[in-house]
């Protein structure tokens, strides 16, 4: 009799062990930024996400930084297939959910705090829900890649007229071509890897990127002038495969969601730090930095926005309503 009970007890423990093992899951988290949490916005976000989730659930989180699993487009595809469960991406989102491209309308956000109010509020939730329907990817939270600024090696840019005749390297994205053309410059699509050589040889006069990217990649050593016009605010999307998310328990969902929100805010903080530090460092190393006045920014916006908005309305079709929804949300957040 004792042996029977022993065998039953052993079988029960084995079953419980197998059930626990079967329930234990791994979340693969991937991004293209460096892993260093002290300097990398996505790196910092990924690490704090891992710490919170592993600390409060039985889930395991594996990190794949620095493009270890591919570029942003590839990461999005992996998340849509639930091969990689969580990805942190920026520009790639608009390629699978076109409504997200409205965030790239130039001079939309006057400050990061306005952008945060919009993305963390009703608009950001509605956009996330819309993109979930389009892609099967749930937006857990928003992080930040930062404001993009113009640099050049010819003259200080204070007004749109100063852009005339200057060739600017831009990403091969129609929206950026329209923006620079609207400002009077000459947009020149060039691959990121070819940019330093293009600046050194004069193929282009300037480029545009967040301050941290400019400093960390030594572009300030190839350019004399920077204008902090903040023409485009780039958001990070912290995405999770909805197929994976719906399979979690309610308690796990709650922790994962909260961890992503904290991660997004951590990424924003690191980005703000790298921007402030970067501005001081590039000036210390000889770069001339100009901060336009509110009136000067308005002049830039008046030139750049119409061409981009017109282009987007044609491209988005039925989704063009997102332009108006964003503008209304920004107006409300700016009051």
Automatic annotation (TrEMBL):
Lineage start: Bacteria, Pseudomonadati, Pseudomonadota, Alphaproteobacteria, Hyphomicrobiales
Annotated coiled-coil segments of the chain: none
Domain of life: Bacteria
Entry's family note: Belongs to the bacterial solute-binding protein 7 family.
InterPro entries per the UniProt record, alphabetical: DctP_fam, TRAP_DctP, TRAP_DctP_sf
NCBIfam families referenced in this protein's UniProt entry, alphabetically: dctP, TRAP_S1
Membrane-spanning intervals of the chain: none
Leader sequence residues: 1-24
Isomerase listed as a keyword: no
Keywords for the protein's UniProt record, in alphabetical order: Signal, Transport
Pfam families per UniProt: DctP
UniProt name for this protein: DctP family TRAP transporter solute-binding subunit
